[in-house]
Specification:
The chain is an alpha+beta fold and about 130 residues long. It contains two helices and seven strands. A hairpin with a 4-residue loop joins β2 (about 15-20) and β3. The radius of gyration is 16 Å and the shape is elongated.
């Protein structure tokens, strides 16, 4: 914490990063193999409620699409907040970006949202501590 930032792993798979003035949930998704670079995705603290709303809306779209896409069919749609909605073989579900972190069960969705809500409560507490140092 000597750099003025705090990091904490979250059960939703991301990492909470807090500084005195801002916070975010960051993810790193490695490439499929060593020939490919990984992907970094950050969810800014000031947009966390928008991400939660988008996750819920995108989940509702995913549930509808599952019913309308023929079994064995594949379909990808852009969702809210840069997410993607995927039906079919590769990374089915609501993905944070592209095919990364597919959420394909309601339990997974609840776990991610709970992690975001935890981060939204925890970050201001950490910021108070950082400012007082």
């Amino acid at each position: 914490m000597s750099t003025g930032t705090y990091e904490e792993s979250l059960p939703c798979g991301g990492k909470l990063k807090v500084s005195k003035t801002a916070w975010e949930i960051s993810y790193y998704f490695p490439g499929p193999d060593i020939r490919y670079n990984g992907t970094f995705v950050s969810v800014a603290g000031n947009s966390i409620e928008q991400y939660i709303a988008a996750l819920n809306d995108n989940w509702a779209d995913y549930e509808q699409l599952k019913l309308s896409i023929p079994k064995g069919g594949e379909f990808t749609k852009s969702g809210k907040m840069g997410m993607s909605i995927r039906i079919g073989n590769l990374a089915q579900g609501v993905c944070l970006r592209s095919y990364h972190m597919p959420i394909s069960s309601y339990e997974q969705l609840e776990r991610v949202i709970a992690g975001y809500r935890y981060a939204a409560q925890r970050a201001p507490q950490i910021q108070k501590f950082l400012v007082s140092q």
